[in-house]
């Protein structure tokens, strides 16, 4: 089984910070691939031996949202940062019989986990597991934001605030959609060289903008603003900057970053009404796991979606602390963790 390590887990849950609510002991991990060991009563669509990707956002395939093309936010099993299964209980205990907490319905840093049928997507066994696991959250979220949430058009201009792994996935998605110009905005100028492999054509170092706001620079570069702006950091101020430099009339601002609880956005009512811009959130990139993940897998197998360039390191499960160190030091995009049964 393969898993990957991500910034959300390290920065907040692993350090027991209040976003998401910290609790201990907890089994982390939410991006993975594995084989079904057994199924519970009433499970019809999965069988022992199936290769599956667990995904934190539920897809019950039954509620009004899951059966609609307009939403991927399940009503039957709402997503939350809960430490429990959907029924409010845990399936994990330690050797003393005491509760171990779950992590956003997946908990993949373990040899065996228990996942609700709504949080599992069946995949073909032909895809390499150390690439398929990337589609469990981060890469899918970024690619999906460009593909599904924004519906980026060929020949368009895209601005990405935050060129981490999610921002790079947005760039990859925009590249696949045929965007002509992809502008990366980050505080680290070294990200430009990395970003070129993902389709980034221009770069703005936000720390070297002088007295100008980044939005002013983007507006000047694009002659009035980007067609699509993506906020991938999780800061209200950057969402506002992204909104300020998306083009009037049809510009779209897509929010992917996870901000602190209670953070608020401030816009002038005049700008919203008179400039005709839109802003929307993009949970899991707007993707429907059970139907859209197989499409991404097919695009990877057809050598369109380039997953390989996201993986910078691979380690055994015994080296998981090394994976966390690489994450903290900013030396890794995606680190795949191998676990033998």
TrEMBL record:
Recorded GO MF terms: S-(hydroxymethyl)glutathione dehydrogenase [NAD(P)+] activity; zinc ion binding
Classification via PROSITE patterns: ADH_ZINC
Keywords: Metal-binding, Oxidoreductase, Zinc
Required cofactor(s): Zn(2+)
Coiled coil: none
Superkingdom classification of source: Eukaryota
Limits of the Alcohol dehydrogenase-like N-terminal domain: 23-124
Cleavable signal peptide: none
A cellular component term, taken from the record's GO annotations: cytosol
Zinc recorded as keyword: yes
Domain (Alcohol dehydrogenase-like C-terminal) ranges: 166-297
One annotated GO biological process: formaldehyde catabolic process
Family to which this protein belongs: Belongs to the zinc-containing alcohol dehydrogenase family.
Subunit structure: Homodimer.
Protein known as: Alcohol dehydrogenase
Organism of this sequence: Buddleja alternifolia
